[in-house]
Each structure stands twice: as structure tokens, then as C-alpha cells.
Amino acid sequence: MFFYLSKILWFFVQPLNLAIFLLLAGGIAAAFGRRRLAIAGPVAAFLILALAAWTSFGALLIRPLEDRFGRPAVPPEQVAGIVVLGGGFEGAINAVRGGYELNSSGDRFVEAAILARRYPQAKVVVTGGIGTLIQEGEGDGDTAPRLLTALGVAPERLVMEDKSRNTYENAVFTKALVTPKPGETWLLVTSAFHMPRSKALFDKVGFATVPWPVDYQTSGIEGVDFFTDDAANALRVTTVAVREWIGLFAYWLTGRIDSPFPGPGTSTR
Questions:
Q1: Which parts of the chain have pLDDT scores under 70?
Q2: Which pLDDT score is estimated for 269?
Q3: Using one digit for the tens of pLDDT, what is the confidence trace for 111-138?
Q4: Could you tell me if 125 and 81 are in contact, meaning their C-beta atoms sit under 8 angstroms apart?
Q5: Environment class of 50 (CB within 10 Å of its CB; exposed 0-12, middle 13-18, buried 19+)
Q6: Separation in Å, CA 66 to CA 29, 37, 177, 179
Q7: 156: DSSP letter
Q8: In Å, how far are 8, 9, 64, 136, 137 from 5, measured between CA atoms?
Q9: Which residues pair with 226 in a beta bridge?
């Protein structure tokens, strides 16, 4: 139920869709002679889109998430496994064309291949099924072997978890699949903005990991600015940031994580 509710809620509150619904509401209000509401809807839609696309709002919103966890100052000498969270492939395209087209989170798999070379004895675990409400395409757990083996990772090192639909299921299903042993070091690879929620969830289910963030969306020095980024990219970053903050609070309110803003000192051990 949580999965379906989260997808439905997000459909309505993501910035672009919310602006469209506000414009629609304004048109309906105008048709019924509600002048104030007819004006309020389009004005609110304009403000949302202007804030998201023409300012640094998205970068300022996502930067605290990206800065929350860093890579270890001294990389571990030995690693039992590398857990890569899905979300980096264009599933609908790959299902038809049979390739491994990457999206904006594809850095996760590039870094996984680099880490696999650095730690040649480590297992490489890819966790991620089809996370869309209308299921089409293939999950990252199905696509990843084609890319990783092409990049030189031996097939016998790969462990695929292709049933999970969200980050909570990533943590639960991956732990059950690999059964990590006490004292082992496992790296957790995901986008930097997604690391607080991911790390907290893996800690909560008792799977100790070392965060290895990738796929940064900000330089870390952004201030309050206007028209400093391509409007489409600024809107995308804002959308990602809003979604991640909503996800954090939803997981906290439902008891899946212990803090609405998990950090190195707040995650369950």
C-alpha cells in the first residue's frame, strides 16, 4: 500500500504536474465565474515554475542532502561487497533495444565498475526492480549484467536483486539475499542526494554499510541566484530535491527510518 500511495501522491505534487493542475483549476474556476480562484491558480503555477526553473532553489534544496554523507577519508583495504542501488538505466528503452542506456543516475554503475576493479574479490550486488506504478520496461537488476560484464566485471561476481520497487525494499531484499556477516565491509553506492535515506534504511534493517556517494547535482558552493542554470535542468534538480525530502519525511513518519534527516550520527546501528 505504501508503494502505491507514494507513487500517486508524487504524481500530484511534483512541481511540473502541480503547476499544470493549478492551471487546470484556474480554468475551471473561470468557467464557474470564480474570479479570484481563476487568477490564483495561474499565478501560483507561474510562481512554482519560476522558482523551480529560473532560480537556484533546487540546488539549495538538494545540497544539504548531498553534503550529509561523504566517502571515507581512507578507503577500506578489503571489501566483501559493493551494493549498487538501481535507478541508473532507461528501462523502457533497454527492454526494447537490449542495450544499457544510462540516465542521469548512471554514475552509480560507472562507479560500481571502478570499485569492482579496485576490489577484485568483492561481490557486486545490484538492487532494483521496476519502480514505476505502470510497470513497463526492465529493472536495473536485469540490465546491469550487460553493462558491468561489458566493462570487465566477471559474471560470477554479480548478484542481482530485481524484485525491489523502492529503497526500503532495496534494503530488505538485499540483506536477505546476501546475508552479510559480522565484520564484513560492504560499500553502499547511490546518488549523493539519496544517500541519507538509503544509509538509514540499510542501517535500520541491520545491514551495516560504508557510504560511497556518487552522482552529485551541485558543486557545493551555490548561493541564491537567478538564471544560473539551464531551466530544464534546474526544474529537474528541484523535482529530485522535493521528491527526496518528501521521501525522507514519509519514511520517518511511517517508522522506516529514525530521523527525518539522517546523518552519520543519527542512523540506527
A1: 131-136, 267-269
A2: 45
A3: 999 999 999 999 999 998 876 655 567 8
A4: yes
A5: middle
A6: 41, 38, 28, 29
A7: G
A8: 5, 6, 26, 19, 21
A9: 55
